[in-house]
Amino acid sequence: MDKQRIDVFISSTSIDLPEHRAAVRDAIITLGMHPSGMEHWPVRGENPVDLCRSMVADAEIYLGIYAHRYGWRPDGFDGRSITELEYDWAGETQRDGTPIPRLCFIMADSHPWPKDRMELDALDDLSRFKARVRENQVGFFSTPDDLKAQVIAALAPYAPQIGGRAALPYLRWLHEQSRSSGLLRVLRPRDAASGEQTVTVDQVYTPLDTRQTVTRDRTGRLLPGHEIAELKRGGETDDKLKQTSLTAMEAASLFPHLVLLGDPRPGVGVVLLSSPSGEVPGVRLPDIAWCEIPAGEFIYQDNERVKLPTYYIARYPITYAQFQAFLDAPDGFEDDRWWEGLTEQYRKQAMAEQYFKYDNHPRDYVSWYQAVAYCRWLTAKYDEHGLWNTVGAQGLAPLHDNRRLLIRLPTEAEWEKAARGTEGLIYPYGNEFDPAKGNTSETGIGQTSAVGLFPDGALPYGVLDMSGNVWEWCLNEYDHPERTQIAGDARRVLRGGSWPYDQYLARAAYRYRLSPYSRYLNLGFRVVLGGAHS
């Protein structure tokens, strides 16, 4: 069967260059290729050298990153390091009789580097090796961002050219792998050889599906596939093995780590926008998946009929990766423009650390002021890059009624309509609570979960995570809901409940409140696109 992806093997010493390797993986994925390399520990029974050699042999492109370490020297190879062996194996690998490209990058000697990340007793071997690879050297690098830009430029001639989104081939491949793997299969590197699970990097993400049938023993313990096969070989019959569905807690906690390859779903991460000339990309922006909420009446709170115009709301809460784009941007968090008019005491309110550091989890520990600043920055970016007409099937035609378009926090009414629909449902998915359709205390996960992990917990509008996971800030004041101005320190509304709170607070009509400077590990937000509110 023809290969449906382009593998780029990443070669480097790993313990000193984790940030650089992550930047290279991001660059490869952005271009629609597949990163490979020894990013995980081998499962039991696999020889790491043999596994590494087979991965190089399967690659279409070799990409080497060299700094100030020579690397591990496996026995039986005349003292050569695994890094040098990978370079040599790549030189022997051919496609259609032609050696695969070897693209090599060496850290600039002028770039400061800590001594504890240098292998000082291997300088001679490292210098000899660097002299060898210079015949395939592409450039010298310094920071991860600098290396990423160079890798994108070097790989671009080999990348599949798909109009609009270069990552489509990679995403299609992930989709097919997801369908066959059935759950969250990408673990953290060291987890690959732990417990009873044996996984590889090629087993990837699919959204939570508690309806998947699994096999248990008589005590209720989940049985891995190899154990089921052994039991059957020993004479155990199907009727003696218990077939059930996963609980929500099991499905969310068995394979929770999607950070190795990145979460490929639209609306969860960031996009890399190219400069008008098509040269090196210049800006990373949140990739918001917008859901249209059509104009009309709906039941608000205690059977009050409220009418709203058309607006768009984000399918998911803003994720850690999406908020980080704001923090990292040169004109982002530190720019005074986004803080004008906010209470003086809390302008540029210092950010707290994310508590659950997964790119595709909601941004937590975020205050109302910080969420407002984020919305202002993102509005300016949509203006700057002409992104308004990328929203919805036909752009923003339904909103063209002379209103100033903004990305902002939702009003309570906007949030509630998106969560309850037009008929005033108690929960987004219906009137009966179901712990398998949202991340609340009853679900039992005990932390935030990846956004969109409960696909059955949505209305026909398609908005997810509106019952549980994190509380979400709304624009208006709690005591005077008609007030939506940004000035002042009046208590603001939060909606949706969160992972440590129960079903009562996760009702779609429940109102919660905190001071706008409050920050906790279960506070987040999502954004809407609509007209300005004074």
What characteristics describe this protein?
alpha/beta, 4-stranded antiparallel sheet, single chain, 534 residues, 5-stranded parallel sheet
Structural notes for this entry:
The chain has helices spanning 18-30, 48-58, 82-92, 123-133, 144-155, 168-181, 225-233, 248-253, 320-328, 368-385, 412-420; strands spanning 7-11, 34-36, 61-66, 94-95, 98-99, 102-107, 137-141, 213-216, 242-245, 270-273, 283-286, 290-293, 296-300, 304-308, 311-314, 393-396, 405-408, 471-477, 492-495, 512-514, 523-524, 528-531. The protein is an alpha/beta fold and 534 residues long. The strands form seven sheets. Strands 2-1-3-6-7 form a five-stranded parallel β-sheet, sandwiched between helices. It is globular. The chain starts with 6 loop residues before the first strand and ends with a strand.
Overall residue-averaged pLDDT value: 79
**Compute the gyration radius: what is it?**
25 Å
Profile the largest sheet. Answer: 5 strands, parallel
What is the first-to-last residue Cα distance?
60 Å
Beta fraction? 15-25%
Widest sheet, order of strands? 2-1-3-6-7
Number of strands: 22
| Oligomeric state of the chains in view | single chain
Uncertain segments are 40-44, 161-211, 252-261, 277-281
- Estimated helix fraction: 10-25%
Gross morphology: globular
Q: So how many helices?
A: 11
The chain-level structural class is alpha/beta
